[in-house]
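To whoever picks this up:

The parser on our side crashed when reading a file containing two proteins. I've narrowed it down to the boundary between the first structure block and the second sequence. Both blocks are reproduced below exactly, byte for byte. First block:
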Amino acid sequence: MGKQLSMAASILCMAIVAMAAVSEAAVVEHTFVVHEMNVTHLCNTTKIYVVNGQFPGPTLDVTDGDTVVVRVVNRLDHGLTIHWHGVRQIRSCWADGAGFVTECPIPPGGDHTYRFNLTGQVGTLWWHAHVTCLRATINGAIIIRPKDGRYPFRTPAKDVPVLIGEWWQLDLIELDRRMADGNFDDNPLSATINGKLGDLSNCSGAPEESFMLDVERGESYLLRIINTALFSEYYFKVAGHTFTVVGADGNYLTPFETDMITVAPGEAIDVLMTADAPPAHYHMIALANQPPEPDPQIPVFISRGLVRYADVRGDNNGLPVPSPLMPSQHNTMPSYYFHGNLTGLAYPGRHRVPMHVDERFFITLGLGSLCRGGKKVCKRRRSNETIVVATMNNVSFHHPTTTSLLERYYDGTGEGVYTEDFPENPPHPYNYTNRDLIPPGPLEEALEPTFKATKLRRFKYNASVEIVFQSTALLQSDSNPMHLHGYDFFVLAQGLGNFNPKRDVKKFNYHNPQLRNTVQVPRTGWAAVRFVTDNPGMWYLHCHFEFHIVMGMATAFIVENGPTPETSLPPPPPEFKRCGANGLTQP
């Protein structure tokens, strides 16, 4: 009896200690001041747009269950919003920060406060500007730690946000204006790792500064790799080291060993790297991959950083610094295999895949064209009489510029602003991945005409939705990182070529699929996702390549209220600022 009491007391004591170890939910407050700053790279001084003088911007370091309050002060000459990429925003759609979708931009000299809760998500997300191309430099990481401080993998010695991006010499506002006019000939000058171009970029013989990661032999480091780039997916490697992939987009993954990470725009990949190589210096490389068609002359975007072991001299003890062997920039197959190897970590309480489907969509992703000047008839095949646009099911999304879709929906004044008839399928089937559609010609000319419209889709609360995204070869052969605001979805399968329901549904993973907010739809391939509409509001769906957003590869989903106040979107919070007549938030 005494032993039993002693054992019971020990168990109770351990339970009390475990409960005490669970961190109290907190309110984490920040102020983001957005302003211009001059930075010199490649022998040129460039004006960029930053938060609090930092590029990348501040990291939000929070714990599961915390409430985040961020006051954004806009000191630019134009409006902007901040989007909290991957945050579920349960019943807080007002704080999503999608420009002209959930709010109008913050005006020059104005401010706006975002308040949202982070519950049920652990891992890495990020934040970025969501108006024009400003996210290239206005961005930062969000680290969400588990309540009890325990991970389902070895506790790392250190967290290391690794933000991969691009360096643009062209002003980002001008870049957006050019793309809106159909000019897509501009490219960045280099890749960046945490804002550093690396020693492969130089001018006048002086190498650029590199990102440095200092490590102790035997320790493990949690690299939180985020692709903030406008244009490219990236390969990432460290010479002499391997990675264990453990999470993505704020969700755990089944541990997966690899020596190379591929990360598409919008994605966040968590990997453990153990410093188990002989003490020395080792190069890390971020290399953009580009489809070989239609333009094999796209420049190489690359940045090189350095992993430095402790007690090794600055000259690497006189030895050459090894660099990792990278794939060809035009080889996109490593991305396909990497994403195909990822599965969700099975654990008690994990969300289950809905086995029934209420709404099915087959969405083609491609390009098309509009006649300039509002004409009905014009010469196609990328002529100067047309503007090339991006489409989903042959609809190019018309983004509002003076109002917020969420406000219109909530107020019941959406008539004349949007319609709710986004199509479930493309207007007519064709061989979506026929490479003969990439160059202008008679085959693609028949499929090229499209139109602009603000077509949305409405869903009942708690509906099960399945979407098969199909990348096409129409005037291009890009992959498409598709991002849905306000939701995580199960990635059931991916494949190359045209989706065939009779054959490919058999490949669906219902046991342990990834939960993601961004799915990389392979180049001339497809990806199938499924989710339940349990979060009421107005939720933006778009490709995370910036040129595809500007061109119209987007829509928005309306999710109706549920039967109770707890399943309904509440009124705008006191800090929310409505749109004014000029398309900016009111003072």
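<<boundary where parser fails>>
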Amino acid sequence: MVLAGSHGEKDGLNDDAVLDYRGNPVDKSKTGGWLPAGLILGCELSERICVMGISMNLVPYLVGDLHISAAKSATMVTNFMGTLNLLGLLGGFLADAKLSRYVTVAISAAITSLGVILLTVATTIPSMRPPPCDDYRRQHHECIEANGRQLALLYVALYTIAPGCGGIKSNVSSFGSDQFDVTDPKEENAMIFFISRFYFGISIGSLFGVIVLVYIQDNIGRGLGYGISAATMVIALAVLLCGTPWYRFKRPQGSPLTILWRVLFLALKKRNQSYPSHPSLLNDYENRKVPHTKRFKCLDKAAVLDDDCAASTNKNKPCVVSTVTQVEEVKMVLKLLPIWSTCILFWTIYSQMTTFTIHQATAMHRTVGSFVIPAGSFSAFLVITILLFTSLNEKVFVPLARKLTHNVQGITCLQRIGIGLILSIAAMVGAAVVEKERRERAIQKEIKLSAFWLFIQFFLVGSGEAFAYVGQLEFFIREAPDRMKSMSTGLFLSTISMGFFVSSLLVYIVDHATKKSWLRTNLNKGKLNNFYWLLAALGFINLLVFLILASRHQYRTHLPIKPESREEELKSLNNEMIEDVEKKASIQSLKNIEP
């Protein structure tokens, strides 16, 4: 079986060959296509149900049942989500370097199932919670907070779920795409349709998590709610394994991270070497696949042919010397980092939708008739807005922009990111205004503001995500080197991860700088609106930095290979002179035949 393996397991087959589960060349009539792709999609659907069902309703449980402060609860959630997205990098690395996407997804689904089962146990056993606390003691901060022993199983469960969901998130879309042959126009169109249905599918999973599971958790029992999540993941894993005979597999071809660290290591090792008189003297310059650039010139030393590389056999040893192509690919990755850094704050703002915004909902009027809407279910506005604007982008905004700008793209990826950043700033301004109004009414008039006012920040962040998510993903995929596309997904996931971690850091700094006067469990005694204003101010500064960096960024397609060796330059000049002479001769001939 070819579920994981090293390069060249079968003689006569290329490393990039598509194989069946027995390791033989695929029979397209019996493998791949929509059926196996749909089975794979089930894993991502279940992952969304688990993550959204947990993250969007964890703060009310931590504050209400475990009596943990709002600031600490928000930090616990953002650290969990940050770790989950960061471990997506590890999942991608393992799949590319050794395990294969199928094995990584299967193992990750099993780990996730175990984690959610542990979470079910942690929230069901009464001894895992402190004594109940009435409203009077809660208002006077006299509730007993959960101790370390009670939190231990909860932490174990959450940080078992994190690597599992991270491994699924980073590989399931790629494994699904592997089921289609892009060289076949019919299958290529099916793959494009699969990708659009993939996003729709995970959105449906998100809606199910924030509406159905959150309601069950709040009104029937958290154990049952998390138990359903665990059951869906176990079923998805079983379905994935049952589909093994129909999948198409690709062998692991090594991680691009290997190229990255080798170039950096060799550049450091050869830092005392002199630069060659001309770039054409660098290793494998004549076979370069990307243009040589002068940016990050220090990395060129990784391709310098020193005494150790004098032998022709050593020129092909990557541990001794890099090629110009490898060096330039690393430069391209480094060129992404400035834009990468300005994308982080968007996800810091987004993280508030899973923490303080949900906590706001608990202090607002949530009753429609006799039905009390769970606080976590208000995040459905976020998912619905994302779905709405994703459709509007492709059917309205992009076609309109094409007509106005005469650009095939309509809206460039950097423009999408910029629009997303602007909308996120507007969301924090709206959140600050709504929170101030809510607090004043609660204190002065003892009236609860309707929780539907939270729609403003959910709507603005959701519409911003529809632009920023697509823009960032497109930017990292388009601008990354061709053989480092998997790393581009990792870079994108890392912006989300860092956004959640920055949120945790900001909460810690603000909580200590204000002596816990802004972020209080009792929102009426705190000043959450000031925290939102701080995020809006930071977002504005970040936007200015982004605009400067974006204006200086040169898209990859704007870097054609130019002749840089002396021979190439002389040849080009000679050709130009010949063309000029021929042009003049033609003009003279025309003059000679004029009457």
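After patching the parser it read the second block fine. The chain has 17 helices and four strands. Residues 6-11, 561-566, 568-573, 576-595 have pLDDT under 50 and may be disordered.
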